Amino acid sequence: QVNSKQGGSPCKEQHVVLLSPVGKIEISGCETGVHEIKLPKMSVLPSGAESSVSCEVCEGPEEMPQPLQQCTAWLRAYFCEPATTGTLPLPAFHHPLLQRDSFTRQVLWTLLRDVKFGEAVSYKQLADLAGNSRAARAVGGAMRNNPVPIIIPCHRVIRSSGDSGNYGGGQQLKEWLLSHEKLQKEKVKS
Asked: For the Methylguanine DNA methyltransferase ribonuclease-like domain, which residue ranges apply (predicted)?
């Protein structure tokens, strides 16, 4: 049921919907790992990026596979108690893009590993970090194809001009996430 390698049967996918401060986030995955995180497409975001108390699973199976449990726990912490995300296990990912060896995968892992909460990098800086300083455009492509936004924080990649640039969840969501992180980071410091 879990083997989705070449020719194997597809894994048993399950879906969870997390009601977050920015709307419904849909998460899909199986026993092996998280497949995808779908952000709400929103034109209007809730005012204020203060951490919200509510971030609850509103639909999902009773028995959630471990990667989905870890993913929802991590996202809940991200919105409600960001300081704790560093201590939580990251869920396993089970998406072809994150399993094939490619520049996209390298960029996404680099971003996950090196760009911390409340920080931002430009496309070019991330290309440098991933080992190819001339690949800023390819970095943009990698961000567009990121199957697990927020956990792999493609919202932290901005244009060199300081402009936030594009985002799968829309520009307001990107700006909301960046200001949420900034506010939370200042709270932790004070």
From this structure: 20-91
